[in-house]
Amino acid sequence: MTPTDAKRPLQLNDQGQLRHFLSLDGLPRELLTEILDTADSFLEVGARAVKKVPLLRGKTVCNVFFENSTRTRTTFELAAKRLSADVITLNVSTSSTSKGETLTDTLRNLEAMAADMFVVRHADSGAAHFIAEHVCPHVAVINGGDGRHAHPTQGMLDMLTIRRHKGGFENLSVAIVGDILHSRVARSNMLALKTLGCPDIRVIGPKTLLPIGVEQYGVRAYTDLAAGLKDVDVVIMLRLQRERMQGGLLPSEGEFYRLYGLSEQRLALAKPDAIVMHPGPINRGVEIESAVADGAQSVILNQVTYGIAIRMAVLSMAMSGQQAQRQLEQGDAQ
Amino acid sequence: MTLPDPAVLLAQMAADLRAHLARRGIHEPHFVGIHTGGVWVARALLAQLGQAEAPLGTLNVSFYRDDFSQHGLHPQVRPSALPFEVEGRHLVLIDDVLMSGRTVRAALNALFDYGRPASVTLVCLLDLDARELPIRADVLGATLSLAADQRVKLHGPAPLALELQTLAASH
Amino acid sequence: MKISIHGARVIDPASALDRTCDIHIEHGRIVALGEAPAGFAAEQQIAAHGLVAAPGLVDLAVSLREPGYSRKGTIASETRAAAAGGVTSLCCPPQTKPVLDTPAVVELTLDRAVAANHTRVFPIGALTKGLAGEQLAELVALRDAGCVAFTNGLAPLLDNRVLGRALEYAATFDLTVVFTSQDADLAAGGLAHEGPTASFLGLTGIPETAETVALARDLLLVEQSGVRAHFSQISSARGAEMIAAAQARGLPVTADVALYQLILTDEALAGFSSLYHVQPPLRSRRDRDGLRAALQSGVIGAIASHHQPHEPDAKLAPFGATEPGISSVEILLPLALTLVEDGLLDLPTLLARLASGPAQALGLPVGRLAVGEAADLTLFDPNASTLAGERWLSRGGNSPFLGHCLPGAVRYTLQGGRISHEG
Questions:
Q1: Does residue A23 sit within a domain?
Q2: Confidence of residue A255 (pLDDT cuts 50, 70, 90)
Q3: What is the CATH number of the domain that holds B78?
Q4: Rounded to an integer, what distance in angstroms lies between the CA atom of residue C32 and that of residue C53?
């Protein structure tokens, strides 16, 4: 006997529209494509003189960051402002002795102040799900990164990058290199690529940095960079954090770079028109050579622009989905 | 009711527009069509005016609609693309069907986020006489009166054709 | 008081008894099975036709949370909940505040248990002072105060040498040591079984080797010291195999498994529900199947609830910030009956694993339904059902089974001939 929990998808309203954006797991291909298409329209907005549309005018978006991040936080702020929303940013440092207000209380207080949407980043995997399910089910929750689990907006902006530079996903070969084990970006990318129909997804790293059962994502694992990079169209390099040198995962940054760093020679193993991506911030000389990061095949800076457009798309779609659900429920109540 | 033939309307509209622009002393305005039907009408109109090669702006107004709170983001149309400066220019804004006037209101807001035009002339193929806002076409193909459950749909891009539709029974 | 229970199907696994007959109780003891003794006039009659009478369940791991954690539970509330689950005797672990490492705390616990009078309580004392893993607790004094066994729980000992000596000391006085084998280093920071589910969810994994590496060491030290050993809360199939191999070698070790480990797997974690956050973690289907097989064969001779009630706040946070534990004693018998429903065990064998098996593992003088024994028994209707949570006595609402309809319903629990629960 196994207890079955309710199978209603948490992220979608009764019409299958986005109401929270927590993870790419379980989202259908049509929805991911809709996010990409919507983002394309928002890219155009960013190229104009007045980089604003009034979609979220009068709405309040709260960025609640339990984990530090300048990059993600500023792009979410910018995205919300370009939608004409009012933005509050809270940097809540997580103390391991957890004194002070609980997560639940912090968010409920913000909700009481009429926050319409939360963007949350937290060090615990599953934090965004917890918030969406138990704390504020009627306020759109956007996951800005939870532990190692998911970073769905990064996943989508990486997909937009690939689509804009490579046209589509059907015939593509994509390699993700580095610390897959600890990477929420890698997990979101693998899920997105699979859903969008990429036939050849590769993850490359030493065994200590490859999660057990990574094949369940429909990817092939390589421990040899040369073999993994052969003829790929897209190379996504992941950031290697200093802490990984402790605990027996890796001996040194130097050895990691020698074996898995993306140098010009290594890049030459991929297709000549392959693109190089990185979620940032880059560790030059650790996972990637400067010449490659700044080179002609790098689209790393474009990713930042696409990130704003994707976040605008997700914020507006989730707000729209929550409102539609509210109306549905009010309609049912009558 | 018999629907008018768009080709016939367009010929008249081209003449009316030429006259209107001359009266106002507007030379070389830029044309902007509202996705999707307005773009089709705009292209056809430019062809009638002998300016098929002129740059045409296309406008996606879904981010400016006033019904986001009720209906959310609509299924996506192509992004806006204005291949010219708006600031200080005379514009001709073209839509296929003028009904409540809200789409045109949204389009004006969108245009003003690109810059401050010198003037905007509104051209519509059809007016359904169901205005909810004080918006009026400067050049109009025809006025139609429909029953409450009727709608008209433009097919395109070429040839342009109008179709009368009856809405399904209310849900 | 003289009580007669009429018409139940009486099952006593220890004596292989399984027949429908009356039970007659006087002065808290069973005086007859079948015909009443001459001149016996019952003051209370219980009509038990269609019910099963079994020895009261013996639960080797019930956290009472008192002293020190009254938001999670008290001796009174949790023993009452246990009685509702069909339990008449339970062992409480030493992870209280203060730790159960002095006779004073043992006496406090026993006094409160006797005052509450819902179940018998057999405390398990701390192996080391404060469970800190450095200095031995005064084991003999604790035994004299009432502790029936000793454990350090999941807390590690300072090093293997200290562990080896602790076992030898315990062996000197014929004391039983209970092991929860988990290597602290391999399990460090872990939240879930290391496997595809944990990888997908991004949760730090506790590998199977955390259990098996510790188990290997523990079994060898048990063999060397000759200490009486019980291995608690085995969570992996490989771990169960190692216990079987040790038993086959002639090592007199016993083992128990948490009931929820026989039912749930790590797949339950999808969705991040903190109700499934337990330590040792829920493992894979293969592990669950291995544990079930070991239960069938008797390698694992006891099922325990491993009841750990929590206040709502402890579970209302992102997964990694929640406290591990499931509140489980209150539905011990109905939930266990699902194993009979699934065809894993027949009813007498299940009752052996729930009563006589646990009692034998720790040498407790309970777990039998026979003439001359204390009248500790539970009467349940195997054809009724229990809606978990309809009535909930434990302070801990942290059970993933709330709202589930479970087979069987406990009608009476008697402890020493006195009704401790009526359902």
A1: no
A2: very high
A3: 3.40.50.2020
A4: 14
- For the stretch A223-251, pLDDT in tens is 999 999 999 999 999 999 887 778 889 99
Residue A43: give its domain's CATH number: 3.40.50.1370
Q: What is the domain count for chain A?
A: 2
Chain A, 292-331: which have a CB under 8 Å from a chain C CB? none
Are A85 and A74 part of one and the same domain?
A: yes
Average pLDDT score over chain A: 91
Q: On the CB side of C223, how many CA atoms lie within 13 Å of its CA?
A: 14
Q: Is the pLDDT reported for residue A69 higher than 90?
A: no
In a domain, A21, yes or no: no
Kindly report which listed range (A96-100, A106-110, A293-297, C52-56) carries the lowest average pLDDT score.
A96-100
> What residue in B sits closest to A52 (Cα-Cα)?
B113
Domain span including residue B119: 6-166
- Taking an 8 Å cut-off on Cβ atoms, the answer to whether A38 and B73 are in contact is yes
CATH class as words, domain C2-53+374-382+406-422? mainly beta
A323 touches chain B (CB under 8 A): yes
* Res A102: pLDDT: 82
Q: What is the tens place of the pLDDT at every residue in A150-204?
A: 999 999 999 999 999 999 999 999 999 999 999 999 999 999 999 999 999 999 9
Q: Is A179 a member of any domain?
A: yes
pLDDT mean over B40-61:
94
Residue B2: the pLDDT is 80
Nearest to C104 by CA among C121, C85, C125, C120: C125
Question: What pTM was estimated for this model as a whole?
Answer: 0.90
pLDDT of residue C201: 97
All structural domains of chain C with their residue ranges: 2-53+374-382+406-422, 56-362
Is residue B1 in some structural domain?
A: no
A contacts of C198 (beta carbons < 8 Å): 212
Domain check: are A143 and A158 in the same one?
Answer: no
Classify burial at B163, counting beta carbons within 10 Å of its beta carbon; exposed 0-12, middle 13-18, buried 19 or more: exposed
A147/C contact by beta carbon, under 8 A:
yes
Looking at the domain assignment, is residue A189 inside a domain? yes
Alpha carbon distance A248, C308 (integer Å) = 34
Give residue for tokens 């819902």.
C118
CB pairs < 8 Å spanning A and B: 50
CA nearest to A97 within chain C: C321
> Under an 8 A CB cutoff, do B113 and A324 touch?
no
The single-letter code of the amino acid at C12 is: D
Tokens of B47: 């062809």
Q: How many domains does chain B have?
A: 1
Give me the domain span that covers residue A227: 152-299
Distance between CA C386 and CA C341 in Å, rounded?
A: 14
Q: What does the angle CA C250 – CA C256 – CA C257 come to, to the nearest 5 degrees?
A: 135
Q: What angle do CA A16, A303, A160 make, to 5 degrees?
A: 35
**Percentage with pLDDT > 70 across chain B:** 94
Structure tokens at C333: 């018998």
The per-residue pLDDT for B73 is 72
Q: Is B109 on the interface with A (CB under 8 A)?
A: yes
Which homologous superfamily is C56-362 in?
Metal-dependent hydrolases (3.20.20.140)
For C364-388, the pLDDT digits (tens) are 999 999 999 999 999 999 999 999 9
CA R_g for chain A: 20
Query: Which chain C residue has the Cα nearest residue A210?
Result: C199
User: Which of C355, C335, C357, C337 is closest to C347 using CA atoms?
Assistant: C337
- Residues in A 9-38 with any Cβ partner in C closer than 8 A: 10, 25
Q: Is residue B171 part of a domain?
A: no
Give the model's pLDDT for residue A49: 81
Structural contact between residues A111 and A120, judged by C-beta atoms closer than 8 angstroms: no
Q: Please name the amino acid found at residue B58.
A: T
Rounded CA-CA distance C140/C155 in Å is 21
Q: What does the mean pLDDT of chain C come to? A: 97
